[in-house]
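#struct-pred

JT: dropping the chains for the assembly here, can someone run the whole complex?
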Amino acid sequence: MTSEVNEPGSPPVLEVSQLRVAYDGRTVVDGVSFRIQRGEIFGLLGPNGAGKTSTLSAIEGLVRPAWGDLLVDGLDVEQQPLAVKALLGVQLQSSSFQAELSIQEIARLYAGLYGVKLSKDQVRDSMRTVGLADELGKKFKQLSGGQQQRLALFIATIHNPLLLLLDEPTAGLDPQSRRGLWRRIEELRSEGNSILLTTHSMEEAQAVCDRVAIIDHGILLTEGRPSELINKHKDDPRVLSVAHGAPTLEDVFIGLTGSEIRD
Amino acid sequence: MTNTGVNTTRPPLGLALRSLLRSDFLVLLNSKTSLFLSILLPIVILVANTVGKGQSRLGGSSLVIGLALTLGLLTSGLFGYTLALAHDRDVGVLQRLRITPAPTWMIMTSRVLVQVATNLLASVIVVIVGAIAYGLTLSPGQYLLAIAVSLLGAAVFLSIGQAVVGLVQSTSAINAISRVLMILLLLLGLLGGTGILGDTMKTIAAWSPVGALMTLFADTLNASSWSGQDTNALLACIGYVTVCATIGVRWFRWNSR
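RK: done, full complex below.
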């Protein structure tokens, strides 16, 4: 896994500083800070309700932070929201597209919204790369879960974004589809995209991410390369108490975030 | 910009608006309920009112055509536009659009423009069918006025629908409220306007959205001269649009959760 991909002196693609997000006075993200460099895949790990999606929502401009700074390629998310959105590709946790539109029409709509002109033939050619060329006439709901995820990722990357935000992109997928999506994520990185993804899967984090951060109750607990995190926390009594043998990333995760089941 | 190989330019607004208009039009075209409410329902009313009788059953021809036009605008505004907006908010379609570089005003404007254009087209068809069915001869000026009143009517009911979606989050609640509201508005405009519920209700009915629009449609189709009643109806419509659109925009939420 290559991690050091930033050009010397170039600004981070994403800089999150002291981010605080609150809903109706209840703080769900509290003082979170991290950076993502160009061409880097960064994983945000946390149990349900930890604050992962709220962090992403703030970066996407869907919620206004109560505090903190969010810079995408040096642009302030709050000051220049539309310019920032043009730099982002987003796959939401549950994407939904207009039920009345075919896959081809959805692709042309979102291409247009990002300033990409696509003819019907170009849509067909592009869809071939994600294995959906034969499904162009179908509606979104008629696709399988894996196909829906592939379409959502295709739409998110239709304008070749600087930073791709993926909210639990492989949730609910079978192993084949999951591996396929990992390959696609690797390809996107090799094309110059930076990626921030949230996941529950430690396997995914280790397989795909250059660096990961563990978040819980809105607070960033630790951050680093997966191997670094294991080394850093391998002697932590909380980690040792849940480990069966040599500590793994999952042991570190459960040790730091607790064993209780979250809703 | 410092990156290479990736897109960092802000997309042109014209292309975004064209894409939105095209997709919103396709959505409306593929939605049979919306088309039925906008065009077929008013025509059914016109035709049903003439079947088996030489004379209109509900009253004068201008009243029936006005009713058909108003009903078409009312149902497509309160059911077509409002429920589609509530549904898209509920399932996350609006949220998905909102994370694109298209400004939020553009996303809403596109929907409203397509709905208004459909309403205008439906109104022209209804007026033509009505004129043929009732043997009316309308001047080009009357057609233009009817279209102008239809535009006003579309604005009235779309803004009422927008206010409902702005104030209420639950799609099922919006569905129920829209049905009740439609019955109330129709009863008030029709029954109240006849005077059988008393003079007070008649006055209220004249200022109600349905009553005001039917007044304007009837006077347009009858080629009546402009009256104080028309002024009141016009003011009422402008008032509804202003108040309801303000409420609908001010309290609108893009996410139902």
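JT: nice. The first helix of chain B runs from residue 13 to 30. Chain B touches chain A at residues 1-12, 15-16, 18-20, 22-23, 26-27, 30-31, 88, 91-93, 95-103, 254-255 (CB under 8 Å).
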